[in-house]
Each structure stands twice: as structure tokens, then as C-alpha cells.
């Protein structure tokens, strides 16, 4: 049930300091010693990672890592998934449905190590703590490599502002890690073609990206995936000046900004429908023209973080905008 918010008790802005479907996965490629030189050593979120050979047993945490491997055709190397954000997209469903889940949320180190992985691949840096999948240095001492989706780095090496060049670089790096650079190159080429075909909205209508939260919405801010997707679709983010990937934004600030479009992230725990019901039931938000005219764009949570579905998500936003009566 949506909680009512007293119109005069609105929370101000607070600052804090990852359409057409994606191209189908290629047929399962074999690791290529000719195109990748092992061991690979590189910095990932400020942590030195060494990959001695193409990983064969991988635990994936978050949908972005799982879907990256499926898109590269190496989903058969996943021995367990955890903390998935939604169902696997149809184009990868057959391969994804066969992968066992080892935890609904972040797995413990014990559960992770029970899978005897040679790599733990996570979509959040916070997956690697002593209380979750394990400290990265400790895992390395046990012969288990760790890798964080680079766009999700927080402690170090966070992109100053996410671009599609960075998204494509991450796909290419994943291709190198798994010894399938040709598959990665094909995927990047297909995504660049899909990106070039996007027709952005004209006039730069303003938008709110509402990810989660009710009393204080958690919104897409100015340097991460939400900003990149909004810009690509021709929208102007009302929180673009907040230097964060996501941040809390009070209803008072949202109402004052009066966004033309409301981008609602859909998840099982905070659905787009619940967000729409709240917006319509609260007098302060019900008066917004975007609510009155139902100018809603819906994005699945799993495609709202940077990864292999980012181009697809931008294309979906642009396509949905074409069906709205924009001011």
C-alpha cells in the first residue's frame, strides 16, 4: 500500500558522496589462446586482478554480470548466480534458466566458495566484503579472482561520467577475461549499430528517473547509467547536476522541477505500478502535469544499471517517448 506524504512535510534535495532487443548471444565460443595473452593483470576498482587463464567456473552476482556472460556466449561457465534483479531476457532465457541460483541476495563467502569458482564476477563492488562473497584479497589468496563491473566502481576508478565508449570498453574487457575477444568485438559492433539507430526526442524534455524509495525517492543522478540513457533518448535529467550515479531527491525538489516525463524503474520489490499509484494518490504529486497526462516510461531494473543491456534500454526509452503527448 502506498504511504501518504503530507504535502508540507516534503524532503529537500540531499546529495551523496551499474524497444529492439539486444543482439542474441553468439554460439558458445571456445577460449582463444591466440587472441588473448595470459595471465591478464589489470586494475579493477583500484584492486590488482590477475586472471591466469580463461575462467571456467564463475559465480555471478547481480544481473549485469550474468547477462554479460550470456551475451558473450559463455553462460555455460556460470556455476551459480546470486542477487539477480529480474528474469533473464528472452534472447538468453534458455541458457539462463539452466543456471542455478545460490542466493537471493548477496551470498556469503562460504556459499560462494562451495561452488569452487575460479572467478567471482559482480555487478556491485559491495559484493566483496568479509560478510558477503568475501574480501577480494582473501579470495585471491585462495586462488579465486574477483571482478567488478567497472561502471559500478565506487572506491576507485569510477568513471567521471559514464559514456557508451566506457560501456563498450567493459564488454571488450570481459571478452579478454573470458578469452573470447572476437565475440566481444561482434557484440560491440552490433550494439554500436543499434545505438546509431536511436531517434532521440526533440526539444530536450525534462525527466525524473525514479529508481526506488517513497518517502525520499532514490533517483538517477548526473554521472551514471540513468544520465547516459536519458541523454541518449533526448531527455534532460532534472538531477543532472548531482555528481553521483544515484542519489536521494526530495519530493519538494521534484515538484519544483516539474519534469515533463517520469521514468519509472520496474522491480519486484518496487514496481512501476506502485510508483504510478503513489503519484496519483498523493495530492502533491497528482497535480504534476506528467502524472495527469500519464507521461510514464518504464524500464526494468535489470537494464537500469550499466551493462550489456544499456543500448537496448536507451532505445526502449526513445521508443516509448514517441508514444507520449510531450509538451
UniProtKB/TrEMBL annotation:
The keyword rRNA-binding belongs to this UniProt entry's keyword annotation: no
Xref: InterPro entries: ABC_Transporter_SBP, ABC_transptr_periplasmic_BD, ABC_trnsptr_F420-0_sub-bd_pred
Signal peptide coordinates: 1-24
One Pfam assignment: Peripla_BP_2
Ranges of residues in domain Fe/B12 periplasmic-binding: 57-327
Record bears the keyword Cytoplasm: no
Keywords, alphabetical: Signal
Stored PROSITE patterns: FE_B12_PBP, PROKAR_LIPOPROTEIN
Gene3D superfamilies, per database record: Nitrogenase molybdenum iron protein domain (3.40.50.1980)
Coiled coil regions in record: none
Family, per entry: Belongs to the bacterial solute-binding protein 8 family.
Entry protein name: Putative F420-0 ABC transporter substrate-binding protein
